[in-house]
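#random but structural
TW: two for the price of one
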Amino acid sequence: MKKYYTRACNFFYGKNSEDKIKKKKSLPLNGNPNISFDSIELITSKNSKIFHISEIKYFKKKLKNKIKKDLEQITKKKFIKNLNFKNTPVLMGVVNLTPDSFSDGGRFNKKKSALKHTKYLISKGCKIIDIGGESTRPGAKDIDAHVEWKRIFPHLNKIKRLNKIISLDTRKSSIMENGIKNKVKIINDVSGLNYDPNSINILKKTNIPFIINHTRGKPDSMQKKPTYKNVLTEIFDFFENKIIELRNSGISHDNIILDPGIGFGKNLKHNITLIKKISLFHSLGLPIMIGTSRKRFIKDISGVNDSKNRLGGTISSCLYSMMQGVQILRVHDVNEVNQSIKVFKSLF
């Protein structure tokens, strides 16, 4: 049987959005009156078509009921413990405590530099600090958990005193457990909880919010000719099945964030498709995060206009994601991205 997926599209913003909602000409995205939509794209694994929401009543009963259930998920408010999505997007600032991360390896893996950089990110509007002690860039090799924790702990011990939301970027359950004991508030597992079989048990035991990132393969092999029949529907199905797995394991809360994993086992076409249609994942009923900051797809598109920090490409992809209601942007350049968001919002 053909499976249908519902993507909110044709968005309105600011005062225009509020007026459309009052006149019942659009629906609020994630319960937020500042962004709404009046159309949906019905997607199958082979094709798609856009419909105005007024046309849904003419669909056959089974499909109509399916779309209505999806719209309930798309329009409901999303919550994460300790996080407020009233003013979206929320910025997650990156602090790599590694010598070999793809864009800033070695810059912040000293005690003083990590703390100074963390304070700077917070002062510029960062709400979440994402720290990690293992590089998962394309081609990176696995490292021992002892080495990873040795990189993380001295900095975490300093950063936790700032009483801000700390996210821990790790694939290992022992690192997760140690981090949670040291005031980590969010677990960010780029493997989608597939690297370490014990990770789900730790998350169940601690009841901590966490991020599910989609990836294909491991860092040392994930960019070797990644293929999908339909990258959108396959990643949607991955998330849907993972959520069912989590529910069956005993995790019943909705403090779960979905990240489609730009650059993790995807080529340029896959990345562009995901960014263009990321609003599809709202129908899973959970907040969405995206990390486009400084990534290779920007170089692939910009060619001779590539730059070290790829700030222009980062900002444009972040603003586009914001326009589709993405709640969390994971970025390196918090000040510049926040500046662009403030200016962009002032235009509506």
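TW: number two ↓
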Amino acid sequence: MDILEIDFINLIQTSLLLLILFFINQHIFSKLQLKHSFFNKKLMNALSFYHLAFGGIYYVYALFNRSDSVRYYNVPKNINKGWLDFFGTETTFIDFISYPFINYLGFSYEMMMLLFTWVGFMGFVYAYLFFKENIPLDIKVFKKVDLLTLILFLPNMHFWTASLGKGALIFLGLMLFGYAISKPKERLITLLIGSILVFYIRPHIFLILAVGSLIGFLTGVGKFTWKQKSFAVGICILSLVLLQNSILSVVNLENSNDLISDFLKFTSHRADSLSTAGSGLNMAGYSLPEKIFSFWFRPLFFDAPGILGLIVSVENLIYILLFLKIVKLDFFKFIKLAPMNVKMSLALFLITSFAMTFVMTNLGIIIRQKSMIMYFIFFVIYYYLAHEKQLKLKSVEILNMDSKQLLNVA
């Protein structure tokens, strides 16, 4: 068979998959519209095309640059192993997920890229539900820009979740978890799926997710009783005890007798190995605040690695401007009385940021890794701004009521 004929068949198959995924989207959107009155089908369709465009951009990028997506396609296709042999955590879990599509359904590399692009998009759908269900108020920033729309269309978030690999699946897992945790009884299956995806892709992030949830449940102001909180704490602790070896094996500490000392050795070695990569960032002499700032907001224009780095620099500037909106004393008062999901999101973001600063010394990896957790701090910022807006609206209502009472007395 001629190579052009093979490519034409691949094009037809990929186009057919695209059509199938489009109709799946419409079915999902219709179901979500019935379940949530706020659901904006038009916005989600626009977001789906936007994300698909980034799938195309990443595909072209992978043609000319080294990409893990090629490895994720070739390993399950070419290594002579059974499907269940690939079941495990981290990289092998992606192989396990990919295996039946590649070997049983005959998916090409392009079809797998498209499939995982769709998976990443579903993460954005649940991010939208996570935000909109908990924060019904519309918030404008920079005078006229809708904050939720801005958050949903940030380019860096789409680029790293639009390819065959860990990024798309873990982002979906985190957003499923965020959406389900506010109503765990009603959304138990969604919560379990989200937790399983996070654990099997990045066990250490699952550890942080569990700790963040514990902090949120124990300190959050909301509808949960102490009985429910105690049950949730028990489940989290039991999960961590049962899964501790799998989590510690990520950093080869499952047999360690001195976790703190061995962890510090691991992070030092890991940081050294990453700093030797093409976009290394020497943070050895940085203070902790400088390391945190570098993880959150770099690269900026002065140290951007290439065209992608310049685009990310613009996005990082937006991050800085959004962060400045919570640099207020009122924010600390707000956090003290914030509900569970806000405290969970803040804890997850801060703990992950703190842990990553010991390891991440490569700008390229920083750009990719922080995309996992940025939506959680965006949620906190959005919730705070909505809280401030609600207080202002209530103040206006009280003033109007007082004015009417004065008029009635007159």
